[in-house]
Design brief:
With about 375 residues, the chain is of the alpha/beta class. It is built from 13 helices and four strands. The relative contact order is 0.09.
Length: about 375
């Protein structure tokens, strides 16, 4: 305690930085500095020195005498650099022999390159220049996608050979998050879609006295298209975004670099469990979503004069196994797209909070766009095959 008090007293008694300027000394201007110069103290303003520079005799030099100087830091170097710049502008010789050696070296480094205020006029790029840059960016993105798909296939190959390195407990936790915890939102969305589809179809079919066929409309639409499509979009916004945010945050905190240092492959440890979880859970969620959508149509059936048993019998008679199989097969591909887009954007994320947000948004947009495009391809192929 006594030592700390002595230190406080000593620190409080350190002299403040001071500066004096005398004209007519050595045929010019003499600038003296003393005390302890620190950025934590009030440093003398160089404006007073500038005024004395204007009053200095013609042809005289400016001499610096810092013999009374105590401790100093970069604030002293900044002051000397300002004085030197003003002497250079006014073409007044500056004598720095009275400076400490360290200050002289730092001042020379600061004045080695003159200040330049570079303001480039905005250049409007040509159309073909912008088109070329966009093409290069698109090409680089396509190459990254193919590289990611190739690495994912290699990881799956190591899994089949039993040489993959990841914890099955992590995979089980991800499966729970992608499956059981997603049931509430899948239930709500698919039930409402079936309800809306049944209402629209029932209103139109009632005009022709064919209200019973609303079961066919709801059943085929949900089993073949809307069940897997809406479940895929839901999982894109819910799970794909979570994957991108998790992996992006891990990259920002250098956890992925730590995995590489430990000899663990990020594809095996991070991407593969998420890919397997969604590929396995998406078909199950799609089957569940189809049932919820058909129940949504059944709720409105009595309002159009169709009993529940008539609705059920018509549903069983019109929706065959091929319709169910088409939706379930597509859902597995949709699951791979959602997981792949989320993991890819997370791996490509920058190392800042804003970059993680951008990666999350990009993952959702990419996966939804890819799902709809792939669904269109499936529609054409299945129609051509007569399924």
């Amino acid at each position: 305690l006594v030592a700390s008090r002595a230190l406080i007293v000593k620190m409080s008694q350190t002299p403040d930085p001071l500066i004096t300027a005398e004209t007519g000394v050595k045929g010019g201007l003499l600038i003296k500095a003393g005390g302890d110069w620190s950025i934590h103290k009030t440093v003398p303003d160089v404006a007073e020195v500038s005024k004395r520079l204007l009053e200095s005799p013609a042809g005289g030099a400016v001499h610096l005498d810092f013999s009374q100087l105590g401790a100093w830091d970069s604030s002293l170097v900044s002051f000397v650099a300002d004085v030197a710049k003003q002497c250079r502008e006014k073409r007044i010789p500056l004598q720095t022999a009275g400076l400490p050696e360290g200050v002289q070296q730092l001042a020379r480094m600061a004045l080695a390159v003159p200040e330049q205020n570079v303001q480039r006029a905005p250049v409007r790029e040509l159309f073909f220049t912008r088109l070329g840059k966009a093409g290069l960016t698109l090409g680089a993105g396509v190459i990254e996608v193919f590289a990611f798909v190739g690495l994912s296939c290699l990881a799956i190959g190591r899994l089949l050979r039993g040489r993959v390195m990841f914890r099955w407990s992590d995979a089980g936790l991800i499966i729970q998050r992608c499956g059981a915890e997603a049931l509430p939102i899948v239930t709500l969305i698919n039930f409402l879609i079936g309800l809306i589809l049944g209402f629209v179809g029932g209103v139109q079919l009632q005009k022709f006295g064919a209200s019973v066929y609303m079961a066919t409309l709801v059943g085929i639409a949900m089993a073949r298209e809307l069940g897997c499509l809406m479940t895929g979009i839901i999982m894109s916004g819910r799970t794909g975004a979570a994957f991108a945010a998790e992996i992006g945050s891990m990259k920002a905190s250098q956890e992925i670099d730590a995995l590489k240092t430990l000899g663990l492959s990020p594809m095996d440890f991070l991407v593969l469990p998420r890919l397997l979880a969604l590929v396995l859970m998406m078909p199950l969620l799609t089957i569940y979503g189809n049932v919820m959508g058909m129940l949504g149509g059944a709720v409105l059936a009595p309002a159009f004069g169709v009993s529940f048993f008539q609705y059920y019998n018509q549903l069983v008679a019109s929706v065959d196994l091929s319709n169910y199989a088409a939706g379930i097969i597509k859902s597995a591909f949709f699951g791979a797209i959602v997981a792949g887009a989320g993991c890819l954007k997370g791996m490509e994320s920058g190392k800042s909070a804003s970059a993680v947000g951008i990666a999350t948004t990009s993952a959702v947009v990419t996966s939804i766009t890819a799902i709809i495009a792939l669904d269109a391809v499936f529609a054409v192929v299945l129609t051509a095959l007569g399924i």
